[in-house]
């Protein structure tokens, strides 16, 4: 059994081991920063902060091995007046010369700012040995966040953003940054990205306000714009499955694509429901699965598992292993959302 829950202070050592495998600004391999993230998350789950200043950090646990194996997070709002959300719009500039009878459509980048930003999801990582697990652990980590949003819709913005990692070099550097950003900022991609988390003034001061024509850059760089890295393709597939699409915007540092969706149009959000458990069954047959969550007034405030279920005239039925993992019983109210079937399974259903 795998359990997704809020991070706890005692998770720091294991969280640090997971962060090694991502080491991004959202989840850096930095113990001091991780301690601050845990505290920020603790105050968010316990509702001690303004709703739009909250950051929720989730951890995935292997219950059998008593081990933390992955993370994901939600920023209730990414982009404020003091620290705007910054991006490149990917646009086109169409030119025609009647004299030469020549026509060009140029792709261009233009810097953009959002001072009342969207909700952002990020920090998704699973330990290498648990990737491609038959239980679909990436889905539990990713989709569990949308169940939480569905249960607390008023605490999140009307749009959700996911900044996906692009293809990077073997040393972690970015071809897009080396071809664009470094010429204006004069520092490495990692250093600029780190500084931008607490101070974005240098971006607004040094990045050009005018359009940057991609046709001036090497072909390889042009092809990188908006591309999803190999290790992130599965995340793109999951996001598209529930209503996200490429926004024609990219990260100004690494060129990674921005995927967005209207919060109320995300299938997992608007299908979230609260139900009472009516039955506990030894096992349940079938391929249909749901995310089932329990919320408590004390930490961990939110815990969720992926499980088989049944809903019929007798009400909601869950498996014994599920109620044991969540510490719940008949009569308890749970948050729940059915998981979308894989594409191949949906196809079989239609054929039948």
Description:
The chain contains eleven helices and 15 strands. A five-stranded mixed beta barrel has the order 11-14-13-12-15. By secondary structure, the chain is an alpha+beta fold. Helix content is 28%, strand content 32%. Strand 12 (289-295) and strand 13 (302-312) form a beta hairpin.
Low-confidence stretches: 345-352
Mean pLDDT, rounded to whole units? 91
CATH architecture of the largest domain: 3-Layer(aba) Sandwich
The main sheet comes to: 5 strands, mixed, barrel
Tally of discrete structural domains: 2
Computed CA radius of gyration, to the nearest angstrom: 22 Å
Helix and strand run: EHHEEEEEHEHHHEHHEEHEEEEHEH
Q: How far apart, in Å, are the first and last alpha carbons?
A: 31 Å
Structural class: alpha+beta
Summarize the structure in short.
With 352 residues, this protein is α+β, with helices and mostly antiparallel strands.
Q: Layout of helices and strands, plus pairs?
A:
Layout: E1 2-6, H1 12-19, H2 31-45, E2 55-62, E3 67-75, E4 85-97, E5 102-114, E6 119-126, H3 137-151, E7 159-163, H4 175-185, H5 189-196, H6 201-206, E8 212-213, H7 219-224, H8 233-241, E9 245-250, E10 257-262, H9 267-270, E11 273-281, E12 289-295, E13 302-312, E14 315-319, H10 320-326, E15 333-338, H11 343-351
Parallel strand pairs: 6-7, 11-14
Antiparallel strand pairs: 1-2, 1-13, 2-3, 3-6, 4-5, 4-9, 5-8, 7-10, 9-10, 11-15, 12-13, 12-15, 13-14
What structural keywords apply?
352 residues, Aminopeptidase, Barwin-like endoglucanases, 15 strands, elongated, disordered C terminus
């Amino acid at each position: 059994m795998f359990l997704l829950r809020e991070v706890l202070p005692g998770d720091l050592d294991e969280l640090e081991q997971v962060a090694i495998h991502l080491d991004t600004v959202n989840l850096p391999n930095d113990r001091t920063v991780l301690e601050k993230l845990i505290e920020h998350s603790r105050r968010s789950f316990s509702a001690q902060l303004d709703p739009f200043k909250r950051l929720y950090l989730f951890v995935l646990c292997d219950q059998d091995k008593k081990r933390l194996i992955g993370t994901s997070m939600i920023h209730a709002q990414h982009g404020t007046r003091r620290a705007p959300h910054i991006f490149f719009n990917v646009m086109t500039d169409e030119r025609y010369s009647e004299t030469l009878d020549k026509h060009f459509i140029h792709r261009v980048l233009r810097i953009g700012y959002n001072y009342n930003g969207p909700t952002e999801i990020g920090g998704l990582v699973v330990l290498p040995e648990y990737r491609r697990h038959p239980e679909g652990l990436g889905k539990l980590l990713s989709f569990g966040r949308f169940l939480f949003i569905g249960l607390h819709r008023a605490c999140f913005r009307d749009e959700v953003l996911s900044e996906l990692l692009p293809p990077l070099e073997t040393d972690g550097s970015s071809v897009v940054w080396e071809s664009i950003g470094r010429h204006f900022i004069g520092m490495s991609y990692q250093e600029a990205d780190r500084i931008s988390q607490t101070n974005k003034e240098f971006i607004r001061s040094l990045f050009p306000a005018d359009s940057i024509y991609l046709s001036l850059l090497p072909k390889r760089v042009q092809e990188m714009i908006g591309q999803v890295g190999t290790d992130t393709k599965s995340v793109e597939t999951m996001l598209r499955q529930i209503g996200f699409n490429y926004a024609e915007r990219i990260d100004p540092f690494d060129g990674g694509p921005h995927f967005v969706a209207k919060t109320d149009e995300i299938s997992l959000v608007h299908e979230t429901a609260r139900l009472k458990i009516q039955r506990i069954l030894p096992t349940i047959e079938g391929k249909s699965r749901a995310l089932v969550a329990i919320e408590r007034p004390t930490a961990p405030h939110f815990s969720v598992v992926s499980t088989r279920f049944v809903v019929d005239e007798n009400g909601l039925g869950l498996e014994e292993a599920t109620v044991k993992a969540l510490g719940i019983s008949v009569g308890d109210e749970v948050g729940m959302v059915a998981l979308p079937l894989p594409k191949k399974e949906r196809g079989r259903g239609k054929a039948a």
